[in-house]
């Protein structure tokens, strides 16, 4: 086989691996974010505001979200951990894993992250970087 052809095939193979390892867009689906919106309205909005603007709890959108979450190499796993272990304030850990993941997806969507075709899950939380491109 031609040496250059071999290198090209090898490099192309590496490219495919690199693409496959990247999270899809925001690492959540539109359906997941929609589910999260309903859960958020029932369990989070009374403290964090109907539009994530804050109230008794901190804002979960805009510059407050950006300064808290979009620096220092944080991932969706960091956000999910706080939501899962500390919320709702009166009953931490009382929602299902799927509900917490959906709320996380909703918060990401409301902060400009675009949904993809792969749902946010415990397996991909750490691969979803909280930085805007």
Automatic annotation (TrEMBL):
Establish whether keyword Nucleotidyltransferase is in the entry.
no
Q: Indicate the secretion signal residues.
A: 1-20
Q: Which InterPro entries did the record assign?
A: Cyt_c-like_dom (IPR009056), Cyt_c-like_dom_sf (IPR036909), Cytochrome_c-type_DH (IPR051459)
Pfam families recorded: Cytochrome_CBB3
Q: Which Gene3D superfamilies match?
A: Cytochrome c-like domain (1.10.760.10)
Molecular function (GO) terms listed? electron transfer activity; heme binding; metal ion binding; thiosulfate dehydrogenase activity
PROSITE patterns, sorted: CYTC
The protein's name is Thiosulfate dehydrogenase
Q: What is its EC number?
A: 1.8.2.2
The UniProt record lists the Cytochrome c domain at: 31-111
Q: Which UniProt keywords apply?
A: Heme, Iron, Metal-binding, Oxidoreductase, Signal
């Amino acid at each position: 086989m031609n040496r250059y052809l071999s290198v090209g095939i090898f490099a192309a193979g590496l490219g495919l691996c690199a693409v496959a390892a990247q999270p899809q867009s925001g690492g959540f689906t539109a359906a997941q974010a929609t589910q999260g919106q309903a859960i958020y309205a029932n369990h989070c909005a009374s403290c964090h505001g109907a539009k994530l603007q804050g109230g008794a709890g901190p804002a979960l959108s805009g510059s407050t979200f950006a300064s808290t979450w979009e620096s220092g190499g944080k991932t969706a796993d960091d956000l999910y951990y706080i939501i899962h272990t500390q919320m709702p304030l009166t009953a931490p850990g009382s929602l299902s894993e799927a509900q917490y993941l959906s709320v996380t997806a909703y918060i990401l969507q409301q902060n400009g992250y675009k949904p993809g075709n792969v749902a946010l899950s415990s397996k991909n939380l750490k691969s979803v970087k909280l930085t805007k491109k």
